[in-house]
Amino acid sequence: MTGAAASRPAASRSSSPWLRMLWRRRFYLLLVVLPTLIAGLYLYGFAAGQYVSETRFLVRGRQETRVASSLSDMIGAAGFKQSSEEALSVRDFLRSQDALKALDRSIDLTGLYRRPEADLLFRLWTADPPIEFLQIYHQWMNTISHDATSGIITLQARAFRPEDAQRIAEEQLRLSETFINDLSVKAREETLRVAHEELARAEQRVRDRRWPSPPSASGSRRSIPRAARRSGWRASARWKAC
Description:
Layout: H1 2-24, H2 26-45, E1 51-58, H3 70-77, H4 85-94, H5 97-107, H6 109-112, H7 131-141, E2 142-146, E3 152-159, H8 162-210, H9 217-223, H10 226-241
Antiparallel strand pairs: 1-3, 2-3
Helix pairs in contact: 4-8, 5-8
């Protein structure tokens, strides 16, 4: 009995340093080592390959005449330029639900995100997702950034096939061109409308100055000077006397 009881503490003492070390580092093992092992196992064993297509384009805004201040001169001398409203509008449009719906109608975006070779974690889970969920997933697979210094918009589209990624990027570029052309047409129409209104007002002012309205009878009677009325009365009195 004493020999068996003595062997147990010896065995526990021989294995206790490893257990104590693992117990002291349990949070590190659970929060760092275990997630890294799971992620590495998934990426190298189950994850499907993804391909990225990158497109860069520059939107040139309308040239507007404005009075430059000293602060804007200093900012321009430092190498910083103000971002055009057209470039920011294009970036916001590509992130909107309208652009997403047009993209899904033209190239079947939902079908591209549900390719058979896509893995279960990164693929689009449902064939008919809500527009809000599809927008979140698309913004995760599609990155749009705008450089305020150069004004260049960078678009990165990811997909599970290289031709799909290129197709998504090219279609977004086409939608951007259409959106910019629509903005230009609306701005041109607004400029022509304002010019026509200014021309009509200017023509009306010229007509008013060239052909003034005839004075009324009461107005003409009040506008005759008093000296002219007296001289006319005297002339008529002499004519009667004669």
